[in-house]
Write a structure and sequence with these properties.
It is built from 11 helices and 24 strands.
Length: 498
């Protein structure tokens, strides 16, 4: 009798091992209750199931189906949909059925970068409590991606969608919240905000390793690193400031927090990062290549064209200095500005709303509103919304004067500094900058100094913590500038940002 039972059990075990067990249909972690789907474009929906299993996806009267591949992965794309505020259910069916409830259709934006994007309302606002108490916006949904580093790209993530309540807003990016609230109020559609940021992270950590390796100049960032997947010590660190090495390792945050988002349909990205790349002024120029390459590579990996990528230029930092000096922060700001050569990008200047030596200024409301103005103008076609300050166009030397011309100066330039037009420095061929006298003539600025009889170059707001004075009629500040291409000299009191 025992022998028969043993034989039956053995046969049963063999039969079970020979029969593949059906895996449950699963959705990637981005798809859960209270989410927002992007309007007016095809919407990828994806997950896993048993190899070859048929998967049916239903939403808003639409049905699409596919079969899971040999690796168990599946993906469908819902046809473009109009914005919809009424909650609906996304159903995914295979061997089992999943229901994702309270799904809206509207505009989805990714909020990414380092600490100034991460800064939450309690620390990121001048008077936070009234704003927090008023943050009841059921049609704004937030997904705060769990902070994750990885040496290889992840295919899934931890995170969940939630309605914007005071409790949720308190935990989300202050700049991101005000950006989303303004778009919601002005455009009148549901808004989805995905927060994927990490304080202290450098630009390298947000870019794919393969993107570094394809560029001879950027390759140096990964040349000393062991192959992905190993646990060897990481040599790449800022010159000061400390912090976990994983924050500074190329691709680690891309792998852990951006790769799992792809190819979720989004309208675009808002970005606030660069402080952690100010440690070495002589390499600051390389940030321009890094940043531009990162933007292009994100778009390539997403596979939905050249989506808008709007970024905030570095804020003020450190005390001011009595004489003109070179600046690591100014050189990174310049590198950021060079990324404007990449199409469908825009830059927000915030030097006028900073707090001097305080890197984490409290006025994140205006940062978010300026980002929103950029999106309203360039994405949502609200041409009456001003979003850009004066940008240097060219210089002509007339005797002992340098005449600077600017774009975005319709109606003429304006001085908004009670001390007059400050922050300009001028130099001759000796490359010795001195503070200059400056005056506005329409959309031009005339710069001179009795100490420089034959000017060659002019700089404006070229400092860690510059004095700002030049604006356009819309009240937006001019971006820092320099007309020279001279290499960096010794930097006074450099720092690595937190």
């Amino acid at each position: 009798m025992n022998g028969k039972i043993s034989m039956t059990a053995t046969v049963l075990v063999l039969l079970l091992s020979a029969t593949p067990l059906l895996a449950e249909v699963q959705l990637t972690g981005l798809f859960n209750d209270h989410m927002v789907l992007q309007r007016e474009m095809k919407v990828p929906v994806w997950g896993t199931a048993s190899p070859g299993e048929k998967v049916i996806v239903r939403f808003a009267g639409q049905t699409v189906s596919t079969q899971a591949g040999p690796d168990g992965k599946w993906r469908v794309r819902l046809p473009p949909m109009k914005a919809a505020e009424e909650p609906r259910t996304l159903t995914v069916a295979g061997a089992n059925t999943i229901e994702v409830k309270d799904v809206l259709v509207g505009e989805v934006w990714v909020c990414s970068g380092q600490s100034n994007m991460e800064l939450t309302p309690p620390k990121g606002l001048i008077d936070p409590e009234p704003e927090i108490a008023a943050a009841h916006w059921p049609k704004i949904r937030m997904n705060l991606v769990e902070k994750t580093v990885a040496e290889k790209p992840l295919s899934d993530l931890e995170g969940s969608w939630a309605e914007c309540t005071p409790e949720m807003m308190r935990r989300f990016s202050a700049a991101g919240y005000f950006f989303g609230r303004e778009i919601h109020q002005k455009v009148g559609v549901p808004i989805g905000l995905i927060g994927a940021y990490y304080g202290g992270s450098n630009g390298q950590s947000w870019m794919r390793r393969e993107a570094f390796e394809s560029d001879p100049d950027l390759k140096k960032y990964v040349a000393q690193l062991p192959p992905p997947g190993t646990n060897a010590p990481v040599p790449l660190r800022p010159s000061s400031g400390g912090g976990p090495a994983s924050r500074y390792r190329p691709a680690n945050f891309y792998n852990g927090m951006i790769a799992p988002l792809i190819p979720f349909a989004i309208r675009g990205v808002i970005w606030y990062q660069g402080e952690a790349n100010t440690a070495n002024a002589r390499d600051a120029g390389l940030y321009a290549r890094l940043f531009s390459t990162m933007i292009k590579d994100w778009r390539k990996q997403w596979g939905q064209g050249d989506f808008p990528f709007f970024f905030v230029q570095l804020p003020t930092s450190e005390p001011g200095y009595p004489d003109p000096t070179d600046s690591a922060w100014a050189r990174v700001r310049e590198s950021q500005q060079q990324a404007l050569a990449v199409k469908h990008t825009a830059m927000v200047v915030t030097l006028d709303i900073g707090e001097g030596a305080i890197v984490h200024a409290h006025n994140k409301k205006n940062v978010g509103l300026r980002l929103a103005a950029t999106a309203l103008n360039k994405v949502y076609h609200r041409r009456d919304v001003a979003c850009e300050g004066p940008i240097f166009r060219g210089m002509k030397i007339k005797g002992s004067q340098a005449v600077l011309s600017f774009d975005n100066a319709s109606g003429g330039l304006v001085c908004k500094n009670p001390n007059g037009l400050k922050g300009f420095a001028i130099a001759g061929a000796d490359q010795n900058f001195v503070w200059a006298e400056a005056k506005i003539e329409g959309s031009k600025v005339v710069v001179s100094s009795p100490q420089v009889k034959a000017p060659v170059a002019v700089r404006y707001a070229w400092a860690d913590n510059p004095e700002v004075s030049l604006f356009n009629q819309a009240g937006l500040p001019a971006a820092p500038l320099r007309t020279d291409d001279w290499p960096a000299v010794k930097i006074t009191n450099p720092r690595a940002a937190p």
